């Protein structure tokens, strides 16, 4: 294999990927062009093809495979491709954790908005059930549990029990406090409004404390990410200087040994740093001050 063939293989892979993403004109589209009159033929803007509904849409974690393929072709070794395939489930788990964290934050914000909206409606003179229904837009943001709460309020069900059930969703712990306030003061709207004001203040304080903690840990996380990327920068610098680091690492016994030891140390360092970050105490969830 000469030196030009890896570039040809890489270009072929990129062309196939672009062709799969772009798609082509369908048979019905060609038929309309052939059967329509000359006046009816108009150029239509190109639109990306829709992903079939019965297939699961591929996530961003699959980028690891073409990246590993390019490195494998450049280094003439199957190890980068195997590493890219092994990285797919790890990256998928990390992306899912990030999505769950974002969903937890949105649900916590929805709980705070719900408490404030119900308190405002109670001060406006509505009964507790009516106030909860008036905040239906906020309740819907809680997901299926919010729908159950709205149904209990509309049809005279057990609202505190529905709130406790909805509080099991990640990020909805504040609904436990709302259920307690509802059960204790449901007979007097004014008392419930005052209790909800205190609950909203407590939830906002808890959220601010959590955001402050995240801001303090942002510097540590950035440092961990930068240190994790230093080996890649070193490899790129060696490649720019003409040292062929990939060939040494992937095609020589000494390079494979150094790659195994370095990869193990890198994984151990990332695990230890993540363990230190997770050990930071979190504020208690749903605490009413």
UniProtKB/TrEMBL annotation:
<feature type="domain" description="Type II secretion system protein GspF">
    <location>
        <begin position="118"/>
        <end position="238"/>
    </location>
</feature>
<protein>
    <submittedName>
        <fullName>Type II secretion system F family protein</fullName>
    </submittedName>
</protein>
<feature type="transmembrane region" description="Helical">
    <location>
        <begin position="254"/>
        <end position="274"/>
    </location>
</feature>
<dbReference type="Pfam" id="PF00482">
    <property type="entry name" value="T2SSF"/>
</dbReference>
<feature type="transmembrane region" description="Helical">
    <location>
        <begin position="224"/>
        <end position="242"/>
    </location>
</feature>
<keyword id="KW-1003">Cell membrane</keyword>
<keyword id="KW-0175">Coiled coil</keyword>
<keyword id="KW-0812">Transmembrane</keyword>
<feature type="transmembrane region" description="Helical">
    <location>
        <begin position="64"/>
        <end position="91"/>
    </location>
</feature>
<dbReference type="InterPro" id="IPR018076">
    <property type="entry name" value="T2SS_GspF_dom"/>
</dbReference>
<feature type="coiled-coil region">
    <location>
        <begin position="196"/>
        <end position="223"/>
    </location>
</feature>
<keyword id="KW-0472">Membrane</keyword>
<keyword id="KW-1133">Transmembrane helix</keyword>
């Amino acid at each position: 294999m000469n030196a030009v063939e890896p570039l040809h293989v890489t270009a072929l892979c990129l062309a196939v990927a672009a062709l799969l993403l772009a798609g082509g004109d369908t048979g019905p589209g060609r038929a309309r062009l052939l059967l329509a009159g000359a006046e009816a033929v108009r150029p239509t803007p190109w639109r990306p093809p829709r992903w079939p509904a019965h297939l699961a849409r591929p996530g961003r974690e699959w980028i690891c495979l073409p990246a590993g393929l390019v490195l494998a072709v450049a280094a003439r070794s199957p190890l980068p491709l195997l590493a890219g395939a092994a990285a797919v489930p790890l990256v998928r788990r990390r992306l899912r954790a990030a999505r769950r964290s974002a969903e937890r934050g949105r649900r916590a914000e929805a709980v705070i908005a719900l408490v404030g909206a119900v308190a405002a409606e109670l001060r406006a003179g509505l009964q507790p059930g009516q106030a909860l229904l008036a905040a239906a837009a906020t309740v819907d943001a809680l997901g299926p549990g919010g729908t159950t709460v709205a149904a209990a309020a509309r049809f005279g069900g057990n609202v505190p029990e529905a709130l406790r059930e909805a509080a099991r969703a990640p990020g909805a712990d504040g609904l436990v406090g709302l259920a307690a306030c509802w059960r204790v003061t449901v007979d007097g709207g004014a008392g419930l409004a005052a209790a909800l004001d205190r609950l909203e203040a407590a939830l906002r304080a808890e959220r601010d404390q959590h955001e402050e903690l995240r801001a303090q840990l942002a510097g540590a996380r950035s440092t961990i990410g930068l240190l994790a990327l230093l080996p890649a920068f070193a490899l790129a610098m060696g490649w720019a200087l003409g040292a062929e680091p990939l060939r040494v690492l992937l095609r020589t016994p000494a390079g494979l040994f150094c790659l195994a030891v370095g990869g193990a140390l890198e994984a151990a360092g990332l695990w230890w740093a993540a363990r230190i970050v997770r050990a930071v105490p979190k504020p208690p969830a749903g605490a009413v001050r």
